[in-house]
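Working notes for the structural subgroup meeting. M.R. asked for a predicted model of this chain before we commit to crystallization trials. I am recording the input and output together here so anyone reviewing the notebook later can reproduce the run.

Input as submitted:
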Amino acid sequence: MAKKKVAAIVKIQIPAGKATPAPPVGTALGPHGIAIMDFVKAYNAATEAQVGTVVPVEITVFEDRTFTFVLKTPPTPVLIREKAGIPKASSTPGSQTIATISEADVEDIAKIKMPDLNANDLEAAKQQVRGTARSMGIKVG
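Returned structure, recorded in token form:
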């Protein structure tokens, strides 16, 4: 079988299990001519266990208007906010600390994010998570 030619790769962040044909899904996929409802149903079925978190997805659209998609791990700030129990990050992260997370929380987040990070080992992944937390006004310790 001949390989299909890739027409586009689309990346979107959508709440797990709650995708709809409305924006941002419709506006991202509409120009590529794929069946949006087919994607929405497949995405919601694949993410129904993670409802409540944002799950990025990378959709590969082929020239014959078929598609495949790969689920990524939730964004680091979403996981950090979840662990800290806060709705949003600090508006002045350099001068205002709004929450604290433990080293164990940092390690948990690093283990979850490891497949999508460009880190060589767990310690490097933990450093990336610590940096993200610091930029959000969240103290680690």
